[in-house]
């Protein structure tokens, strides 16, 4: 079964977001657990979250992903901002425990001149404050494009973070096709080899979710500009190959393409048709 959905808005509540998702022909979704550019958490309505939790299962929602705000930086040079990152993550994870078995994805961070080594230690330190053995949510490190001083542009950097985390069974990876392409991985021409490299360095068992985006820019550009599926440099043939690849086909695929719900519904219909035709 293809698990596919898009980035959704939770502004009108969790249950409403779930209904909108199913109405789009999707069976998964991603949402910002709080304002993507700020730190403020939305008011927590327990009943709404419980209604949403009831929408999972056969014929309903499958594995979903909450995304941490872009501004959160677990490897900021400012210790107060690192502390704030840990607080935000811990707060979001309280809500995620109402939705057991799902994912919380975050950008590892930007080292802002401190260097990758220091940043990797700080990210792991943040995770060691937040992760605990009994948690029912898996936290995901996203593969990054390498824009500016972003950490997580290579599989090696992600592996180095995982190695320093105590509860590493609560830690996984979310691949982003645009980011990997922009980072330099040839997921269009050499998908098999790229996944083999990932398996050798991190292990495919750690791969839990997939952001399906085309890219506006050339491979290795380090730009991170998402394009509509088939309208970027990755292309529809390569995107179809990702959906049906044996190492990827069971993952939740989340669209972060620059369009609205109606546009995402149309892309999802195209992806389903492409997989059915295989
Ligand atoms: Fe992201
Ligand atoms: Fe992404
Ligand atoms: Zn991106």
Task: Please provide a written account of the structure.
The radius of gyration is 18 Å and the shape is globular. It has helices at 14-23, 46-53, 79-96, 116-130, 155-163, 177-183, 191-201, 236-244, 261-276, and strands at 3-8, 28-32, 65-67, 103-106, 109-110, 138-142, 150-151, 171-176, 207-212, 214-215, 226-227, 252-255. α1 (14-23) runs parallel beside α2. With 278 residues, the chain is of the alpha/beta class. The chain has a single domain, classed as TIM Barrel (Alpha-Beta Barrel), CATH 3.20.20. Helices cover 37% and strands 17% of the residues. The model has no long low-confidence stretch (mean pLDDT 96). It has an eight-stranded parallel barrel with strand order 1-2-3-4-6-8-9-12, surrounded by four helices. A two-stranded antiparallel ribbon has the order 5-7. The longest helix has 18 residues, at 79-96. It starts with a strand and ends with a helix. The structure holds fe (iii) ion (2 copies) and zinc ion. One fe (iii) ion (FE) is lined by residues 67, 107, 142.
Keywords:
278 residues, alpha/beta, TIM Barrel, two-stranded antiparallel sheet, 9 helices, binds fe (iii) ion, binds zinc ion
Question: What can be said about this structure in brief?
Answer:
By secondary structure, this protein is an alpha/beta fold.
CATH superfamily heading: Divalent-metal-dependent TIM barrel enzymes
Radius of gyration: 18 Å
Low-confidence runs: none
Global structural class: alpha/beta
Largest sheet, in brief, is:
8 strands, parallel, barrel
What is the architecture at the second tier of CATH? Alpha-Beta Barrel
- How many separate domains make up the residues? 1
- Major β-sheet strand ordering: 1-2-3-4-6-8-9-12
- Could you report the average pLDDT, rounded to the nearest whole number? 96
Bound ligand species: fe (iii) ion, zinc ion
What percent of residues adopt helix (DSSP H or I)?
25-40%
Distance between the termini: 13 Å
Q: Enter the CATH topology name.
A: TIM Barrel
Highest CATH level, the class: Alpha Beta
């Amino acid at each position: 079964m293809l698990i596919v959905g898009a980035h959704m808005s939770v502004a009108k509540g969790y249950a409403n977001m779930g209904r909108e998702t199913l109405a789009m022909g999707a069976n998964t979704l991603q949402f910002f657990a709080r304002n993507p550019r700020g730190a403020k958490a939305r008011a927590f309505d327990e009943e709404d979250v419980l209604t949403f939790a009831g929408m999972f299962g056969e014929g309903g929602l499958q594995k979903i992903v909450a995304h941490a705000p872009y501004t959160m930086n677990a490897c900021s040079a400012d210790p107060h901002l690192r502390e704030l990152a840990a607080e935000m993550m811990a707060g979001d994870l309280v809500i995620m425990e109402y939705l057991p078995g799902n994912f919380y994805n975050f950008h590892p961070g930007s080292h802002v001149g401190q260097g990758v080594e220091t940043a990797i230690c700080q990210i792991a330190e943040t995770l060691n404050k937040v992760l605990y053995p009994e948690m029912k949510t898996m936290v995901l490190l996203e593969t990054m494009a390498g824009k500016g001083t972003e950490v997580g542009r290579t599989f090696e950097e992600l592996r180095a973070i995982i190695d320093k985390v105590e509860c590493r069974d609560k830690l996984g990876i979310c691949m982003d096709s645009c980011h990997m392409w922009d980072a330099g991985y040839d997921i269009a021409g050499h998908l098999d080899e790229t996944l083999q490299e990932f398996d050798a360095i991190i292990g495919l068992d750690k791969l839990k979710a997939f952001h399906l985006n085309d890219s506006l820019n050339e491979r290795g550009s380090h730009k991170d500009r998402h394009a509509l599926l088939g309208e970027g440099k990755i292309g529809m043939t390569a995107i179809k190959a990702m959906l049906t690849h044996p190492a990827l086909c069971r993952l939740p695929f989340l669209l972060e393409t620059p369009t609205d719900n109606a546009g995402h519904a149309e892309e999802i219909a195209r992806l389903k048709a492409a997989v059915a035709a295989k």
